[in-house]
């Protein structure tokens, strides 16, 4: 989400939106969405990919976001409008059909016949001279650090969840007996951690935590925010100034807490070693875990990719399969865009060098 | 401010600790303070700080570490090991340090006293008739002092 | 790093100037630049290479396609893509070169931090690059045969540190750990490990016995007396005083942009937001492209120093060059600015304002069609209204789905009119609910900076109840400062409206981003509220 209040915060998130639109507008790029690779074969210099697309039940081109389907649905929350009123989407787990019901309420209600609940999977056979894998990263599962209480204690959330709540204006702090709400950010959750096999820096967490903290402060100025960290990474050119500004707005505490627990009054307590040299249990209303990037899930049907020591994809040597973005190693949005340009040129170089067989 | 000269300290002390079984992880520490925060001893005695002990070893402050009574306060709860992101395994490092201290004869008098009693009686306190009479009254079996196999161990 | 405004050299649009898109000026000086030159040759370009070539660089091997001007320094450059004129100072005099593209690929200016740390460059003190060179050349013997060698590194104690610096330190430690008698210390503030592989190197350094000190407040102080160097500090964890007399003290360096950045910046007006680098610190410029077509910044010229990324940059330059050539042949931006020479008074406002440096002048201002990005800022800045945006002819094969027009707002029937920047506002608008969208007449513009006073006034005259102008956030403009121009211009216009007796709240400027439609939604609602009382018959009033 956009983290700016008055001045661009350089996160690059808006550029993703624009890149998607630009890509969709380009006549030379075919998009197969909600799809996955079932099988990849190479014959000579040609790759043959079998792509399977999930059933497309709501057609965006026909839908005018009138909302009749949401009104007609008997199960609250099974079909929802996106927050800014775009095409609705079906939440599979809530929908009665996932439990064997043959309900067709939304489809029947739609005045533009934009819903087809019996749509089936579609298969595409795509032949190409090269393959680029850019499947991204897996967000670290914070329950792998059980002492922080994620999934166990209410009020402990990941930064990803905080973003969602902020974007939907749903982040509420309910301070107990305390007029001033307090939020803690814990850095390096799932990063720089050899103990759980994640001994690398995820590169984005210092940046996003400071930006989210600043956004939170702008929305709720009386919030007291503490950031628990080890080191702070340089994330942009004006970094020194940003860090100074952060230090003025936030409490930066150079210590990693050992535990989070629920407090008797219903809030949270965090145990850490403070700058005065004592262990303290400090009170907070919310604890945000700055989760890192875990390696990507395997791409089914694609065996040629190697993995590095941390599990991120390694590009195969001149096999025509290229790797780009966070699935190759943790990196920010801007870094992914930077790398993408170089990878594109390498793909072109590869295709020029090799024998290009006929695709048909 | 008093200044300790690092040149006068013993840079090889950390390797001595690292060579002890269990001490290998000491150089991995990057001072995140998670172990200190998890330590139940540090909670009640702020002077006992795992990260500071590691730091003193790494700097080569051999005498300050070995002659320090605080190193004997470790309760071996393994809390530090659970939270350490770099597998320092501080509890085992503490054993390594304590072993070296013992080799150098730097064990606190109280502990030496306990060791003597342990060797003599097989327990940390004497067991006599008084204790066994009380046990009989409560319906508990009598206990001897030195168990056979314990004697063999010693 | 000068802060005085640079005079802008847009003069002499050479008449009948044939463009040459085959020649590239590479301002170089290290192996990366050499690699770039060779790569460009492979792709069929001819290269003018300015700078000291590496010993392995033999220009003769390239069929005369690489001309090397050794010991050359770029003094001045002007022109547009396809026709850049560079003046290069050499020991034999000034050399003039004409090229189609310019790539600033010099290594950074490296300035050791003696002054920053208050350290005199005496014996035992060496700077990091020099030290690493010595180690890699095998000059380990020079370190000495003492029982215990103490080597201290300073890294970013002044608060300025880079992953490239730490990579170099780890490079040094990799060599040093093979020596049995060496103990390394690194004094820093924050460990910079945010690159693939650096954390693992940091761990290896610690496992090899290197001690790291990360200071919060007071940095170490260096005492130099009688040839003895002492580092005096308070250990950040023990809170006790220590001193270390290292056998060698290695200081890190500032990595500064190279010297050809300045003359190149002089032909890019928007460089006032990018200095001392060649690209603005904005995610809109993530790679080698600068705001000016045909000018590229590799690595240090844009603030990137980490070695593996520079290899990527070489490929990116090649790709960007080819893309630009394709664009010059097949159109380019949707719009292009055109000057009516008879109206032009040569005030040079457009020349000095165009963020992309696309405008030159001779007898009148003239827009270079290959450099123009069609942002429209010059159109609204020209005091004589002598410039207009025209739709560039597009090749028939292009059937892009988006329709973009800059049209005069007419007959709005009391609705709100929204001028939406195509990079942000238009995308945000597309995400709104149909109910909100129906309240607004959208006019997509190439940049918020293209919206002039007359656009707004005309819209009001034609019956709009209110006008909203949506552009990118400050720092995120694709034309660098178009959004700032818009904000400034519209704030002045609001004042003018108020002085004319109109409700100034009928006009608002909304900075936003493509993924923040909620900002646009709030702005529309706000505008509806403030225009409610002044437009009683407006259908908008009944909707609020």
Question: What characteristics describe this protein?
Answer:
heterotrimer; B: 154 residues; mainly alpha; Fumarate Reductase Iron-sulfur Protein, Chain B, domain 2; 10 helices; 51% helix; C: 544 residues; alpha/beta; FAD/NAD(P)-binding domain; Alpha-Beta Plaits; five-stranded parallel beta sheet; 26 strands; 27% helix; disordered C terminus; 4Fe4S_Fe-S-bd (chain B); iron-sulfur cluster binding (chain B); iron (chain B)
Précis, in short:
The complex is a heterotrimer of chains A (360), B (154) and C (544). Chain A is α/β, with parallel strands linked by helices and 360 residues long. Chain A has helices spanning 13-25, 68-72, 105-109, 159-167, 205-219, 239-249, 333-353; strands spanning 35-43, 46-53, 79-80, 89-90, 122-128, 131-133, 138-139, 156-158, 182-189, 224-228, 251-253, 259-262, 268-273, 279-284, 286-291, 293-294, 306-307, 313-314, 321-323.
What do these coordinates show?
The complex is a heterotrimer of chains A (360), B (154) and C (544). By secondary structure, chain A is α/β, with parallel strands linked by helices. Chain A has 3 domains: 99 residues, FAD/NAD(P)-binding domain (3-Layer(bba) Sandwich); 66 residues, Alpha-Beta Plaits, CATH 3.30.70; 156 residues, FAD/NAD(P)-binding domain. Helices cover 22% and strands 23% of the residues of chain A. Chain A is built from 7 helices and 19 strands. Chain A has a 5-stranded parallel β-sheet. In chain A, strands 1-2-5 form a 3-stranded antiparallel β-sheet, with no helix packed on it. In chain A, a hairpin with a 5-residue loop joins strand 13 and strand 14. Chain B has 2 domains: 98 residues, Fumarate Reductase Iron-sulfur Protein, Chain B, domain 2 (Orthogonal Bundle), CATH 1.10.1060.10; 45 residues, no CATH class. Chain B has 10 helices and 1 strand, in the order βαααααααααα. Chain B has 154 residues and is an all-alpha fold. Chain C has 544 residues and is of the alpha/beta class. Chain C has 4 domains: 158 residues, FAD/NAD(P)-binding domain (3-Layer(bba) Sandwich), CATH 3.50.50.60; 145 residues, FAD/NAD(P)-binding domain (3-Layer(bba) Sandwich); 57 residues, Alpha-Beta Plaits (2-Layer Sandwich), CATH 3.30.70; 128 residues, Rossmann fold. Chain C contains 15 helices and 26 strands. Chain C is globular and about 90 Å long. Chain C starts with 22 loop residues before the first strand and ends with a helix. The N terminus and C terminus of chain C are likely disordered. Chains in contact: A-B, A-C, B-C. At the A-C interface, helix 1 and helix 7 of A face helix 5, helix 7, helix 11 and helix 14 of C. Strand 1 of chain B pairs parallel with strand 15 of chain C, so a sheet runs across the interface. Chain B: GO terms for molecular function: iron-sulfur cluster binding; metal ion binding. Chain B: It holds the Pfam family Fer4_8. Chain B: This is 4Fe-4S dicluster domain-containing protein.
